[in-house]
Amino acid sequence: MRVLITGGAGFIGGHIADRLVAEGRAVEILDDLSTGKRGNVPPGAVLREIDLRDPAGVARVVADFAPDVVCHQAAQASVAVSVREPALDAEVNIIGTLNLLRVCAANAVKRVVFASTGGAIYGEIPEGGRAAVGALPAPASPYAASKMAAESYLEVFRQQRGLDYTILRYANVYGLRQDPHGEAGVVAVFASRLLSGAPIQINARRDVGDEGCIRDYVHVDDVVAANLAALRGEIAARVVNVGAGVGTSTLELAKILARATAGRSQFTFAPRRPGDLERSVLEPSPEAPCDVSLEDGLHRTVAWFRESHAEIQAPGTRSTPSHR
Ligand SMILES: NC(=O)c1ccc[n+]([C@@H]2O[C@H](COP(=O)([O-])OP(=O)(O)OC[C@H]3O[C@@H](n4cnc5c(N)ncnc54)[C@H](O)[C@@H]3O)[C@@H](O)[C@H]2O)c1
């Protein structure tokens, strides 16, 4: 199986690349390094530095490598950026995806596995409820709208061009190597700030000072497992939720991380960010079981950030926590 991973220099794509290379697969990565890093690309995978918005570049990569399957992770992945720059979000997430699907259909790619968002596509989930795959999408941000448009194009290309696909709707993904300097990834932001003693900010669910928004947190290892199963053609469903099905407030999360880091950061409270949902929890799909508990996953993540932090404090005195 030859696999092209778009966004393979990013947080999730890099973990998928690791696993595929370890299995001995031929892996190429299409990434413009806008938020990704060379360090996330495992030795053994080829990085092609191309922007999804460049149709000729995307066509060249697919024609040269002739992948059997494409794992499409590249995206403008921040809700906050999508609110500020909806056109940029649409160019990358809609036009970029369209560029990719056109060349996949023209180059006999068997299947596209698409990283969609369970965390944003269903809109607000009322107290006590969980969003099942059959629920009607209700985007409340440009990011959710662009992911929904990309999902629709996948179905159109299947009908018109016979291009098969699996849509994986991720909940809030966390784990080692997530970028704490980005706009997404509250676990990475909090873990890193707790370890350096910087204050951490709880954005409100409704009113400043409340427990913050409710999210369904899923460890990156479970997301990688779902991607591998989908790439191998082991998932028959076209749309799958990848989440733990458990709602956790930002304040609860901060407290678990404070215990795990023994951090003494001050908690500050701020209003809700535009585009953020109050509550988002998924009904997990049986095709994508989540095996890593939040407690265990957070401890593993903190251990990595602790090592990473020690390396920043005393460069060269120990081996880098990055896997390469
Ligand atoms: N992290 C989450 O909680 C989460 C939740 C739901 C869905 N997702 C989706 O999962 C995917 C991966 O997210 P992530 O958290 O690893 O984010 P990330 O920002 O770490 O990875 C995205 C990658 O895409 C690349 N990229 C961005 N624009 C590009 C372009 N125009 N051309 C080529 N490459 C481009 C970036 O350089 C980066 O390497 C995204 O599609 C995101 O929308 C993530």
Structural description of this entry:
Strand 1, helix 1 (11-22) and strand 2 (26-31) form a beta-alpha-beta unit. This protein has a 7-stranded parallel beta sheet with strand order 3-2-1-4-5-6-10, sandwiched between helices. A 3-stranded mixed beta sheet has the order 7-9-11. Strands 8-12 form a two-stranded parallel sheet. The chain has 324 residues and is an alpha/beta fold. It is globular and about 55 Å long. It has helices at 11-22, 55-65, 79-84, 86-106, 118-121, 142-161, 186-196, 220-231, 250-261, 294-313, and strands at residues 2-6, 26-31, 45-49, 69-72, 111-117, 164-170, 172-174, 200-203, 214-219, 239-242, 247-249, 267-270. The structure holds nicotinamide-adenine-dinucleotide. Residues 7, 9-13, 31-36, 51-53, 73-77, 92, 96, 115, 117, 119, 170, 172-173, 184 line the site of nicotinamide-adenine-dinucleotide (NAD).
CATH H-level superfamily title of the largest domain:
NAD(P)-binding Rossmann-like Domain
CATH top level assignment of the largest domain: Alpha Beta
Q: Which topology of the largest domain does CATH recognise?
A: Rossmann fold
Radius of gyration: 19 Å
Largest sheet: 7 strands, parallel
Q: Please list the strands of the largest sheet in the order they lie side by side.
A: 3-2-1-4-5-6-10
Report strand %.
15-25%
Q: Structural class from helices and strands?
A: alpha/beta
CATH architecture of the largest domain: 3-Layer(aba) Sandwich
Bound compounds, each kind once, are: nicotinamide-adenine-dinucleotide
The domain tally reads 2
Number of strands: 12
What is the global morphology?
globular
